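Researcher: Checking consistency across runs. Here is NADH:ubiquinone oxidoreductase again:
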Amino acid sequence: MNKLRIGFFDFTGCEGCQLTVLNLEDEFLELLELVKIVEFREVMSGACERLDIAFVEGSICTPGEAERLRAIRAKATTLVALGACADTAGVNALGHFRDLRELRREIYGGEHPPALTDIPRPLNAIVPVDHRLPGCPIDGREFLAVLQALLLGQPPQLPTFSVCVE
Ligand code: SF4
């Protein structure tokens, strides 16, 4: 059986969503029976040419990140936004309420802080996103449910939660 080739990629975020995946431990190891992890900076080096599913964490805050995201999109059949930063720009979107020059100086110091785009953006502002897995961080069981559905060739169904109690 040909295993699906999957990869994990990160942009601006705290990496808590990737950590949630790694914390699945036994379930994560069982996954290796079904998939081949071809790129995952947190646990391995090297880059792949093609992959079936790209799980992408983090929001896009620099022109370089946008370029790298386009390259991931070009080599992935399916792209999943992993967590709130990727899905909605998450906590990084708080930067919208601050002067970016001042914020850059505050965080990085120095005369030449790194360039940021004017707005931290979710993935779907740059490339088409096939599926989303919200949460800050993501829920490990939901990650497994999404991956299982994709392995079966089905559209992932996320549970819906009501915030209102009747
Ligand atoms: Fe971290 Fe939350 Fe962003 Fe995930 S969504 S990378 S846990 S800040």
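Researcher: Does this match what you'd expect to see?
Model: One thing to look at in this run: The first strand starts at residue 4 and ends at 10.
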